[in-house]
C-alpha cells in the first residue's frame, strides 16, 4: 500500500537566516562558488579581509540551503558542505536553516536537483525580473516524507552514488590501460618521419553570408574530442570565412592545441563549421589511417610534441601554426601495421564508449532516482 506524503511550503521547514558580520582585514576567509544547474557548492577561493570591499558579509553553516539571488533560476542553489562551514557570502545570497526535526538537509539537497523543483524556481512570475527574493524561496513546495523515509531515500541514493563513483574510477583505469596498450603497439614497429609525410593541410573554406546560419563545433582540451555548439549567424561574426568540417578531418585548435585540443571529425559532425582559428588536415591515402590518427592525437604522449611546437606560457603561448605542426618528428608504423592495430582496438571500442556515452549521464541519474522514489508515494495537497 502506498504511503501518503503531504506537500509543504519550504517556509514550513526552513528559516531564513539574515545575520551579517563585519569583515576584518587581517583575517582569511573562504568564499563558495554556487554551481549552476543544481550541481552543488564548491570552494571558490581563500581571500584576506583586506581584499573584500563589502565589509558586511553573511556566514554559511554546514547544511544550510544556499540560494544565489541572481542565478537561482539557472539552478544556482544547494546544500553547504562541511568543507565550507563558516564560508562567507554577500547579501546577494540567501541562507536557510532546516528544521531538522522535519526535514533532513541532504534530502532537500537531492530534491532540489529534480526537474519538478527546478521548474518552480525557473517559472516566470508577473514580471520578467531575473532575480528572486528570499520570500520566493519560502513559497516553493516539496513533498515531505517522514524522517525515517527521508533517511531511507538518502541511504538508497548514497549507495547508488558510491557505485557510480566506483564506476567512474573504473572508467579512468580503463582509459589509462587502453592508452598504454596503444602506446605499446605503436612503439613496437615503425620509423621516424615528419607529420607532414602522413597528413596534409586541407581546408574547405566557406565564405560567410549575412543571411545564413552556421552550426558550430568546438574542440575540448586534453583529448576530450569535438562537440556541437549553437549556430552563428553571418551577422554575428567578424570572420570572413569558416572552415567546413568533413569526415575524418583532423581538427586542430591553434590556440589550445598544445593542451590536447585536437580531434578527428566523426561523420555526425561532418558539414558543421569551425572558425579559422581551427585548422583541418587530412590523412594521405595508404600512408596514414584516420582511425589510427584518432588514437594518436588523443594520447597524452602526443601532446608534448604540440607543446614543443610552440613557445611561451599561458595567454602568451604561441599558436600552433600548420607549418610547425607538420614539421613534428613522429614515430609511425607502416600503413598495414596501423590497420592491424586499429583492428585490435576496434574490439575494445565498446568499452571506450562507456566514457563518451554512459558516464556523462551519471549525475542525471541521481535526481531521476529521487523522482522515482517520490512517484512511489501518493501525495496530498498543502
Structural features, described:
This protein has 382 residues and is an alpha+beta fold. The chain folds into two domains: 4-153 and 364-380, DNA methylase specificity domains (Adenine-n6-DNA-methyltransferase TaqI, Chain A, domain 2); 191-332, Adenine-n6-DNA-methyltransferase TaqI, Chain A, domain 2, CATH 3.90.220. Helices cover 31% and strands 27% of the residues. The protein is built from ten helices and 23 strands. Strands 2-10-7-8 form a four-stranded antiparallel sheet. Strands 13-21-18-19 form a four-stranded antiparallel sheet, covered by helices on one side. Strands 11-1-23 form a three-stranded mixed sheet, with no helix packed on it. Helix 4 (147-187) packs antiparallel against helix 10. The radius of gyration is 26 Å and the shape is elongated. The mean pLDDT is 87.
Query: What fraction of residues sit in β-strands?
Result: 25-35%
The largest sheet is: 4 strands, antiparallel
The CATH homologous superfamily of the largest domain is called DNA methylase specificity domains
Give start-end ranges of low-pLDDT stretches: none
The domain count comes to 2
Brief sketch in words of this structure:
The chain is of the alpha+beta class and 382 residues long. The protein is 31% helix and 27% strand.
Index terms:
single chain; 382 residues; alpha+beta; Adenine-n6-DNA-methyltransferase TaqI, Chain A, domain 2; 2 domains; four-stranded antiparallel β-sheet; 10 helices; 23 strands; 31% helix; 27% strand; elongated
Amino acid at each position: 500500500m502506498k504511503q501518503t506524503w503531504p506537500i509543504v511550503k519550504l517556509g514550513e521547514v526552513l528559516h531564513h537566516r539574515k545575520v551579517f558580520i563585519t569583515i576584518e582585514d587581517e583575517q582569511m576567509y573562504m568564499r563558495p562558488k554556487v554551481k549552476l544547474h543544481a550541481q552543488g557548492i564548491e570552494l571558490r577561493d581563500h581571500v584576506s579581509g583586506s581584499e573584500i570591499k563589502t565589509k558586511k558579509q553573511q556566514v554559511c553553516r554546514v547544511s544550510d540551503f544556499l540560494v544565489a539571488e541572481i542565478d537561482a533560476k539557472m539552478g544556482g542553489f544547494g546544500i553547504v558542505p562541511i568543507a565550507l562551514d563558516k564560508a562567507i557570502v554577500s547579501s546577494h545570497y540567501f541562507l536557510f536553516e532546516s528544521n531538522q526535526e522535519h526535514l533532513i538537509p541532504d534530502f532537500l539537497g537531492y530534491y532540489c536537483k529534480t526537474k519538478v523543483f527546478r521548474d518552480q524556481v525557473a517559472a516566470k512570475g508577473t514580471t520578467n525580473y531575473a532575480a528572486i527574493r528570499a520570500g520566493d524561496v519560502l513559497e516553493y513546495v516539496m513533498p515531505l516524507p517522514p524522517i525515517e523515509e527521508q533517511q531511507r531515500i538518502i541511504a538508497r541514493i548514497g549507495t547508488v552514488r558510491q557505485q557510480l563513483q566506483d564506476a567512474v574510477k573504473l572508467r579512468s583505469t580503463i582509459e589509462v590501460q587502453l592508452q598504454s596498450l596503444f602506446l605499446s603497439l605503436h612503439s613496437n614497429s615503425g620509423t621516424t618521419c615528419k607529420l607532414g609525410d602522413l597528413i596534409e593541410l586541407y581546408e574547405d573554406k566557406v565564405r560567410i553570408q549575412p543571411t545564413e546560419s552556421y552550426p558550430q563545433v568546438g574542440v575540448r582540451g586534453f583529448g576530450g574530442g569535438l562537440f556541437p555548439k549553437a549556430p552563428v549567424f553571418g551577422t554575428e561574426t567578424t570572420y570572413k570565412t569558416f572552415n567546413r568540417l568533413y569526415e575524418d578531418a583532423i581538427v586542430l585548435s591553434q590556440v589550445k592545441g598544445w593542451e590536447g585540443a585536437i580531434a578527428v571529425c566523426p561523420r555526425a559532425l561532418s558539414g558543421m563549421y569551425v572558425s579559422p582559428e581551427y585548422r583541418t588536415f587530412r590523412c594521405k591515402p595508404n600512408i596514414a589511417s584516420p582511425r589510427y590518427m584518432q588514437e594518436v592525437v588523443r594520447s597524452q604522449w602526443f601532446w608534448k610534441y604540440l607543446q614543443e611546437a610552440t613557445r611561451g606560457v599561458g595567454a602568451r603561448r604561441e599558436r600552433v601554426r600548420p607549418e610547425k605542426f607538420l614539421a613534428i618528428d613522429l614515430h609511425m608504423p607502416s600503413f598495414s601495421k596501423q590497420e592491424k592495430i586499429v583492428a585490435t582496438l576496434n574490439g575494445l571500442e565498446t568499452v571506450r564508449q562507456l566514457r563518451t556515452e554512459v558516464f556523462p549521464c551519471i549525475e542525471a541519474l541521481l535526481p531521476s532516482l529521487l523522482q522515482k522514489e517520490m512517484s512511489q508515494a501518493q501525495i496530498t495537497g498543502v
